Amino acid sequence: MSIPPGGLVKGVVAAALLFYALFGSTSWAGNKRMVEDRVRELDEVNKQMLQQVEDKPKDGTIEVKAKVTERQGRFNFDIYQKKVTSKENGELRFQDGAIPAERRPGTAEGRFKFDAPQVNKTPEQGEKGKDEDQIH
Amino acid sequence: MRIKSIKAAFVLFLCISVAGGLAWAGNKRIMSIRAAKVLAERAIVESVHGLKVRATETVEDMVAASFVGKTESKTSARMKGIKYEEVVYDPEKDIAKVTASVTLDTITNVDGETLNLGGKVFRRVAFATSTPSMAGPIRALRAAELDAYKQLIKRIVGFQLESKTTVENYMLKSDVVKTKVMATLYLAEVTDFGWDEAGDAYVKMVLNVKEIAEILGEPIVGTEEVIEVEGQGAQEDDFSTAQTGTAKKKAGK
Predict the structure, then answer these.
(1) What CA–CA distance (Å, rounded) separates B28 from B91?
(2) Residue A16: how many CB atoms within 10 A of its CB?
(3) Residue B25: CB partners within 8 Å, gap ≥ 6?
(4) What confidence tier does B249 reach under pLDDT thresholds 50, 70, 90?
(5) Chain centroid to CA B117: how far?
(6) Count of CB atoms situated within 10 Å of the CB of B72
(7) For residue B151, what pLDDT is reported?
(8) Quick check: A135 and B74 CB within 8 A?
């Protein structure tokens, strides 16, 4: 039994169209891929930040807070709070524990004003305390 | 007999034409165009006066299922002189497209600073519909726009990262990563936008740092001349659908 070349081409095209109609339009669209990409990016940034923490415990918890800026594709971590809790000997170590008052914001706040340093506090400092979860 | 039939057909055609015309008339077109004009005005205000953006993201144990990302924006300004350069309406999809522009000499931005713009022209495009089933692509475009704003802010002022990691015998037991950002942004320009073949939207945004520095009259330290980002937005929530499916499977076991 032989399939004429024209028939084979038509069959392949039809199968491809059917596949696209069934799966193509739905498998590519949507936010799932975007979320997965973002999770990968966050994981990468987090790994880079944790690499800067010395004396990682065998058993324990590392809590780090940092201001992250990106320059020429590289992340710069300004760690302003670091807490390492080790279960091995119940030791609680606070590193860089003394945080200046101006570096304790609930969020990375700022506006772009072009002087040095670039990051400035917003003029809405008074708003911060009202409700951190809302934009005022 | 034949003439009578022709006459009857003609009368019927006239009736259909009149009735049809009446059925098509309505306020849908006007409402969609008006909505697009309002959205174009907002886009202009966001570009020129600026906006406040607050965004948070949380992910636990590096599992996408736990991801929660939220971005909010707010702007408010009084602006005059906005012109509608182009108004296009697609009656089939009930989608209106409006291109608005404004020429400004000075502006008070979101931070209360007065900027000398020297007659700079700002132009933005907006879409709107009064048919909810047609809103998907427009909503995706707005989501992409907010994503682009957020990315620009992250590039300019950075973001706060909080991480809590627990290890046991050198094995990761739990991991929580949070990012937070809240800042104001102004003079961002949209250079391109659209939808890919799957219907997901993209918005390319640029912040010409060099030009803004000239407007502000202040030097720029340690940054690129132009910051370009691409925001993304989806019209289908297949992420939540996948979570619901997984939850149902677990419940069924």
Answers:
(1) 9
(2) 11
(3) none
(4) low
(5) 25
(6) 15
(7) 94
(8) yes
**Closest chain B residue to the Cα of A31, Cα to Cα:** B234
Domain spans of chain A? 8-51, 56-124
Amino acid at B22: L
With CB atoms and an 8 Å threshold, state whether A116 touches B72.
Answer: no
How far apart CA B233 and CA B198 sit, in angstroms, is 11
Chain B partners within 8 Å of A59 (Cβ): 167-169
Residues in chain A: 136
How many helices and strands (H and E) does chain A possess? 4, 5
Please name every residue paired with B68 in a beta bridge, in sequence order, or none if there are none: B58
> What's the CA gap between A41 and A46, in Å, rounded?
9
The tens digit of pLDDT for each residue in B126-169 reads 999 999 999 999 999 999 999 999 999 998 889 999 999 998 88
pTM of the model: 0.76
d(CA B146, CA B133): 22
Sort out which chain A residues have CB atoms less than 8 A from B180's CB and list them.
106-108
Residue pairs spanning A and B at CB distance below 8 A = 190
Q: Contact B136/B199 with Cβ under 8 angstroms?
A: yes
Q: H or E segment at A51? A: helix A32-51
Please name the residue that has the structure tokens 């339009």: A25
Give the position of tokens 């690129």: B224
Domain assignments of chain B as residue spans, ordered by start: 26-246
Using an 8 Å Cβ cutoff, are B200 and B231 in contact? no
Residue type, position A128, single letter: K
B238-252 vs A32-51: helix crossing angle, rounded to 10? 90
How far, CA to CA in Å, does B198 sit from each of A21, A23, B231? Answer: 12, 11, 16
Cα B14 to Cα B20: distance, rounded to the nearest angstrom: 10
